[in-house]
Amino acid sequence: CDEDALASWTCGKPCQELPRMESPRFIHAPEVGGHALVGKLRGSCVLAFRGTDSLMAWGQNLRSLDLARLEGCEVEGRSCRVGLGFNESYRALSLDIRRSFAAIGCT
Questions:
Q1: 22-63, pLDDT tens digit by residue?
Q2: Which residues, in sequence order, are CB contacts of 65 under 8 Å at separation 6+?
């Protein structure tokens, strides 16, 4: 559905399945084909990522065959690793995700 339908939470069946979503905001990173949604559900802050929907996003998926170290993450003394394309997509979205969370009172 389109951004206006998401903003008003009138996006048909997906929105009907979560009727209490508040302050939804849709975030795009066209340079990597990434999309995210932030909002509040029953008082909790929610972040969801949209799955692959374009050739650009498929390219990012393929880039994720190569793994990169995830900064600031370690488990049992070993560095966490993440698909390079997924990490790039997240980084492209992350500033607007943080801004959107702040705008709806999520810290």
A1: 999 999 998 888 999 999 999 999 999 987 878 878 888 888
A2: 83
Write out the DSSP string of the chain: --HHHHHTT--SHHHHHSTTEEEEEEEEETTTTEEEEEEEETTEEEEEE----SHHHHHHHHHTTSEEEEEEEEETTEEEEEEHHHHHHHHHHHHHHHHHHHHTT--
Query: Which residue's entry shows tokens 């170290």?
Result: 69
Quick check: 44 and 105 in contact, CB under 8 A? no
